[in-house]
Prior knowledge:
Layout lengths: L6 H24 L6 H14 L3 E2 L17 E5 L2 E3 L15 E10 L2 E10 L8 H22 L1 H4 L6 H19 L2 E2 L4 E4 L6 E6 L15 E4 L2 E3 L5 E3 L6 E3 L5 E3 L2 E6 L2 E4 L4
Antiparallel strand pairs: 1-4, 2-4, 3-12, 4-5, 6-10, 7-8, 7-9, 9-14, 10-13, 11-12, 14-15
Helix pairs in contact: 1-2, 3-5
Amino acid sequence: MIQLKSKKDIEILREAGKKLAYILASLEKATVPGVSSFELEDLARKLTKEAGATPAFLGYTPEGAKRAFPAALCLSVNNAVVHGIPNEKEYIIKKGDLVVLDMGIVYKKMIVDSAITVSAGGLEATDEKGRKLLQAGKECLDAAIEACRHWKKDFPKGIKTGDIGQAIENAFMFYHKKYGFNMAEHLGGHGVGFKVHEDPFVPNLGVPGQGPALQPGTVIAIEPILNEGKAQIRLESDGYTITTIDGKRSVHFEHTIAITEDGVEVLTEM
């Protein structure tokens, strides 16, 4: 069941979103060749504390997990798709690495969630296919947000989760046909606000008109996750890190948005 947020809830989420946007922007600047995953985790915790917030992922135990997540930051590099652990096995970032920085924070008991993927050393540090993969991920997220932005005009009965998935899929198909990229299987967005994960599930591939309608007061995290190669993924032995089955790279972009009477507000942007 979708738990609608009040105007007061969304005001708090708006504050939280600005704080998380700043944290991720700072982490992006710090993600350079030679930096340690341990250092990035330490910085994530420091910035979160300075923002007057707490990490949403640290100590969180998702359904089916055998232990709590041990970090504030999900750091997933190259063939790691999501939920990489930065503070158990040290990794030194290399030039051209595609690095996913995924974080959630709790502020005044409300939660926001966002992710970016960066090329360590700048866009010129990775190859052309890596740059196209990054471009595809950003365009898919933008397309989903744009579909939500005009929900009253384009979807008079309310936009549904399938409509968001279809918008992502439409943006994605060019890159699938030209470069062979695939959407990571099984993964998608979700409701957020009172908990890290709430209803509804927001698919990255969808059928228009299917799924629950998103009414004003709905807050969701939209997160297209694109693989350079096959769609298939697997869970590693640490119980959290998900990787591509063929060892090829993956990118992940995510924003928390609020559906309002006027369309959509992106809460996790500067």
